[in-house]
Amino acid sequence: MSQPADTKLNLSAGVLSVAVALILIVAKGWALWVTGSLSVAATLADSGIDLLMSAAGLAAIAYAAKPADEDHAFGHTSAEDLAALAQSVFIIVSATVIVVVAIQRLLAGDSPLPKEEAKGIAVAIFSILVTFALVVWQRRVIARTGNKVIAADNLHYIGDLIPNAGAIFALVASRWFGNGHVDSWVALLAAGLLVFGALRLGKGAWDALMDRQADPAMIADIARIAGGFDGVRGYHDLKTRVAGSRVFVNMHIELDGGQTLDQAHAIGAALRRAIIAAHPRADVLIHKDPVGVKKHPDDHRG
């Protein structure tokens, strides 16, 4: 699939994600107003976070799709990591507020019972159905484009299904058993899931911004391709770094020093194409060395 087609699919998933978040915020805001349920409040906060994340993800997809320019020779994909890091901080702050309120209710021992539980349950079921539809479409887009921003958003929305199911459980427990504490406990569980997801999201963004290497399995596969490639006598200084949905790969390959420059170039170009075919999001730069060349004593950087 061509890059323009990939971009259109990615943008469609981003726009749909924002639309779903807006719809759920309206629905859950109304449910919170009529029920007063803290577990519903937790899912509302989660949808608010979804909106911010989806909007930031959409902006990151659009910005990262811009080609490299004079000021950004390696492209604009780090925008995805900056957005993700900011999102993770906001998620943790929101979850902390929910935890504080839930603990205060539990310590006070007078957790109020939600009202109009049936309406809250209906909204939670509606949220699950809408979220599931979005997840299915995102999975189709990911299968075609491999966009990591959408993949992260997809995982987050899959995680949203648990707090929504918890809200249904809390409302049912309140309606049939008159237990208001369940609402607070479900809110604490939802907040814990939010923090867990935020820490994972933040770590991935931080690692990318700090130029952490690519996944070891990807590095091993690139080494396998280079090691067995026709005309390549060896390789060294294989280095990778991640920026958003892109993985930058630098490596030195060792070639027969007696061949022509055209022949050496053809081997390097073919190897680059082979690596990109296996890892479409890779940006590959290959330096060619003759077999047996010795490093210059003043060349400390390799």
Structure description:
Helices cover 69% and strands 10% of the residues. With 302 residues, the protein is mainly alpha-helical. The protein folds into two domains: 3-208, Alpha-lytic protease prodomain-like; 216-290, Alpha-Beta Plaits. It has a three-stranded mixed β-sheet with strand order 1-2-3. Helix 2 runs antiparallel to helix 3 (78-108). It starts with a helix and ends in a 12-residue tail after the last strand.
> Which CATH first-tier class of the largest domain would you pick?
Mainly Alpha
Gross morphology is elongated
The total of beta strands comes to: 3
| Arithmetic mean pLDDT | 77
Q: Can you give the helix content as a percent range? A: 55-70%
Task: Give the SSE string.
Answer: HHHHHHHEEHE
CATH superfamily of the largest domain: Cation efflux protein transmembrane domain
Through-space gap between termini: 37 Å
| Helix/sheet category | mainly alpha
Describe the structure in brief.
The chain is mainly alpha-helical.
